[in-house]
Design a protein that fits this description.
This protein is mainly alpha-helical. It has two domains: 123 residues, Arc Repressor Mutant, subunit A, CATH 1.10.10.10; 101 residues, Arc Repressor Mutant, subunit A. The chain has nine helices and six strands; from the N terminus they run αβααββαααβααββα. The strands form two sheets. The protein has a three-stranded antiparallel β-sheet. The longest helix has 46 residues. The radius of gyration is 23 Å and the shape is elongated. The N terminus is likely disordered.
């Protein structure tokens, strides 16, 4: 069965930034080019380039002097607005989940300190060092970025996974092109470095570091 998170993206993954601003403006009502320039405070050549790109995508069209959304454009911006609302709600849920995990980890650490340490000194948490792995591995840059973000999250929170709505949100976190992400996730997963699965309770994806890989990194540190 194909993994939806790893599926090939469409050209609509390029629709972002100023393109979204234009679509949301035209979602209110048709506008002339001059009106768009006045509202956005961008120059003519900048605005017209984006308008023609959106028309090539079939999202907008022109009727004499007025630009307007096509049926496809209307569907796209409606989906986008719905996605933003859903993402905001999921971020709230995941934030609450992270806080709960942090509280649980904090309580576990307190119990461990009470039973193991008799002095007032609080031991520092174990920090995974990726420097040697990053230097020696032949992974591409996106694969390295995925591992680095997950390890950084683990070092800060003690959680081996990150929860995201979809690959677009994870790509944004990594600051990479969403269309380049599926291959990197697939390679890391099949090599036993990460896991990816759908958490139906929160309607979100869990992307995490495998325990065996963490243990390998810890052993590598001891050899240095």
């Amino acid at each position: 069965m194909n993994d939806p998170l790893l599926s090939t993206t469409t050209s609509f993954s390029r629709i972002r930034g100023f393109s979204i601003i234009l679509l949301r403006l035209l979602n209110n009502h048709p506008l002339r080019t001059s009106e768009i320039i006045e509202i956005t405070q961008k120059n003519f050549h900048y605005v017209i380039r984006y308008l023609y790109n959106l028309r090539n995508y079939g999202l907008i069209d022109r009727n004499e002097d007025f630009w307007f959304l096509t049926d496809l454009g209307d569907s796209f911006i409606s989906y986008f607005i719905s996605y933003l609302k859903s993402r905001k709600n999921n971020e709230r849920i995941m934030k609450e989940c992270r806080k709960n995990n942090e509280r649980k980890n904090s309580k576990k650490e307190e119990r461990r300190n009470k039973t193991t340490f008799t002095s007032l000194e609080i031991p520092k948490s174990r920090q995974i060092n990726l420097s040697l792995w990053m230097k020696e591995t032949n992974r591409d840059e996106i694969e390295k970025e995925v591992v680095e973000v997950l390890i950084d999250h683990y070092n800060k929170t003690g959680s081996k996974f990150i929860m995201v709505k979809d690959q677009y949100e994870f790509a944004e976190k990594l600051q990479v092109n969403p269309s380049d992400l599926p291959k990197a996730l697939k390679n890391l997963r099949q090599d036993g470095i990460i896991y990816v699965f759908k958490d139906r309770t929160f309607n979100a994806w869990k992307i995490g570091i495998k325990k065996n890989f963490l243990e390998l990194l810890e052993k590598t540190e001891k050899w240095i």
